[in-house]
Amino acid sequence: MIKMSQWIKACKVDQVPEGKLIGFHSDDKKILLANQKGKIFATDLICTHAEADLSSGFLSEEGVRCPLHLSVFNLQDGNPQNLPAEIPLKTYNVKIQQNEVYVEV
Ligand code: FES
Question: Using a 6 Å cutoff on CB, does residue 52 contact ligand 1?
């Protein structure tokens, strides 16, 4: 069966200010929101290498850095920029409506 995507409400825009990482759960999904230079991105919350929670990582111009072994993932395409992670993070579309952040899952 093909599962249709849907937009889920994640949080208020002001809960993800510039430079901030937050994680949230929706059903079986664990999603990271990252505000990089005023733009909000959504990716999987859990690192593809050894399951660290990326919301306790670090945000930089290059992307989100895993707190455990320090791989950096690009926020646009989820690609790891350095070892040890080799598998990209899944990324999700984001939209802002009436001051709420929505993620397409
Ligand atoms: S758990 Fe993220 S790089 Fe190892």
Answer: yes
